[in-house]
Automatic annotation (TrEMBL):
The keyword DNA-binding does not apply. It is found in: Cell membrane. Belongs to the MscL family. It is a multi-pass membrane protein. The chain crosses the membrane at residues 20-49, 69-93. Keywords: Cell membrane, Ion channel, Ion transport, Membrane, Transmembrane, Transmembrane helix, Transport. NCBIfam families: mscL. InterPro entries: Mechanosensitive_channel_CS, MS_channel, MSC/AndL, MscL_channel. It comes from Carnobacterium inhibens. This is Large-conductance mechanosensitive channel. Homopentamer.
Amino acid sequence: MKKFIDEFKDFAFRGNVLDLAVGVVIGSAFTAIVTALVNYIIMPLVGILTGGTNIKNLSIDVGGAKLEYGAFLQAVVDFILIALVIFIFIKIINNAANKFKKTEEVTKEVEIPAAEQYLKEIRDLLAEDKNKTNL
């Protein structure tokens, strides 16, 4: 039993599992933000542009069965809008991260190890010597 508990602790508290748990929690919070943006800001604007038509209520009667295809269309529109919003957020975050990296790279001075510097100097001297003998 102790071996089982130790194995479980190793599994549960491994870095990957904790990272995944943090990712799920942040992902669900991000989902709430994106869903609110789509439902309360973007969809009302779409409603204004479409003249107040609510596609969610569209349906057709076929042989006594009511096919509510509007709900499906609404889900497709929601998916496209949510994917677009996530794409825009990720693009903004990546651009900000890249700007930060570039400024960090500019300020960071790379120091070349002495051995590598000597090898470069030898290479350059050999290249000069080769050029002189070819003339």
